[in-house]
Specification:
The chain is an alpha/beta fold. It contains eleven helices and 19 strands.
Length: 346
């Protein structure tokens, strides 16, 4: 089968690799129909690492995927060939203290699609995955929507982390796919006002069209001053979705005392910093968001019922053999790209 393989920093080759076979009775073989290029994939493409997760070449990335069941193990009960599914890319043990505490996203034995040292990714024709990671798509859902379930689930999860104290007014700093997923989840949850920012003007406009009450470009205006003028009592929560030090500083300035800062973005550098005096004087709560937990069904339901329309995010489609072109487009933020989808059969 064909695979788009990282062979060095900024280099992708199309290679023939062996097709996977069922290894366990609960395994499922999935014919991949769509994979979205995530920001983490771009880190591996451009920098060859995220923190201590260092690519050893050759390696296949990709984890935001959907496809069609091709073959099932003898103990598989929920799925049959030709079922259409979205894939939860995190394979967990179900036995460690984190799994038993309802935190599979921090499983001590987590293996994640397209992550160095864990599992090869979905930029291939066929993948093998446990049945528990397969979620049947709602009737009428497209494969592109299926690939966008995973990022939407992160947006849903980030709002759930504030359960019991749903914020009325928030900012989302970074209007890429994750920031837009937070926006969609926030609107469904009933957040009253959402302010969004991005340095890419096309994404500023996309945020506005997707329902942001205000969106702005920090390279064109003082976004802290603009938001503070509209909200003199400041904001209940800020979702940092771009991995940028400047955005973290802006977040602290935008939060009211007792506000919550949720960090979803992945910085290029290993360390970030805060003005500790601003942080402590306002008693800002800091929450790191680690992917998602138990939110795939919710995300599928929101897409199926049209409560969250993610289709606008899929701005570009590429065949598997054009994966290098897709990664160059996304890493360069070119042509108004929000989410590039790789379709092996495209």
């Amino acid at each position: 089968m064909k695979a788009a393989v990282l062979t060095g920093r900024g280099r992708i080759e199309i290679r023939e690799i062996p097709e996977p076979r069922l290894a366990n009775e609960t395994d499922v073989l999935i014919r991949v129909e769509a994979t979205g290029i995530c920001g983490s994939d771009v880190h591996y493409f451009s920098e060859g690492r995220i923190g201590d997760q260092v690519v050893e070449y050759p390696f296949v990335v990709g984890h935001e995927c959907a496809g069609v069941v091709q073959e099932t193990g003898s103990a598989v009960t929920r799925l049959k060939p030709e079922d259409r599914v979205a894939i939860d890319p995190g394979v967990v043990c179900g036995r460690c203290d984190q799994c038993l505490a309802g935190r599979p996203n921090t499983c001590h034995n987590l293996r994640y699609l397209g992550t160095p040292g864990q599992m090869s990714g979905s930029l291939v024709d066929v993948i093998r995955i446990p049945e528990q990671n397969c979620h049947r798509l709602g009737e009428g859902m497209s494969m592109n929507e299926g690939a966008l379930v995973e990022p939407l689930s992160i947006g849903v999860y980030s709002l759930k982390l504030l359960a019991g104290s749903l914020p009325e007014k928030i900012a989302i700093l970074g209007s890429g796919p994750i920031g837009l997923a937070v926006l969609l989840a926030a609107k469904v949850a009933g957040v009253r006002a959402v302010y969004m920012t991005d340095q890419v003007e096309e994404r500023v406009q996309a945020a506005r069209r997707a329902g942001a009450d205000w969106s702005g470009n920090p390279e064109r205006s003082d976004i802290v001053a603009r938001i503070r003028a509209a909200e003199p009592r400041l904001l209940d929560a800020v979702f940092e979705c771009c991995g940028d030090q400047g955005a973290l500083d802006q977040a602290v300035d935008l939060l009211k005392p007792g506000g919550k800062l949720l960090v979803l973005g992945i910085p290029v550098s290993d360390r970030v910093s805060f003005d500790i005096h601003k942080l402590r004087r306002k008693e800002i709560g800091l929450i790191n968001v680690r992917r998602q937990s138990h939110c795939f069904p919710d995300a599928i339901r929101l897409i199926k019922t049209k409560k969250a329309d993610v289709r606008f995010m899929a701005t570009h489609e590429f065949s598997l053999v054009d994966a290098a072109q897709a990664f160059e487009l996304v890493s360069g933020y070119r042509d108004g790209v929000i989410k590039a989808i790789i379709r092996p059969s495209f």
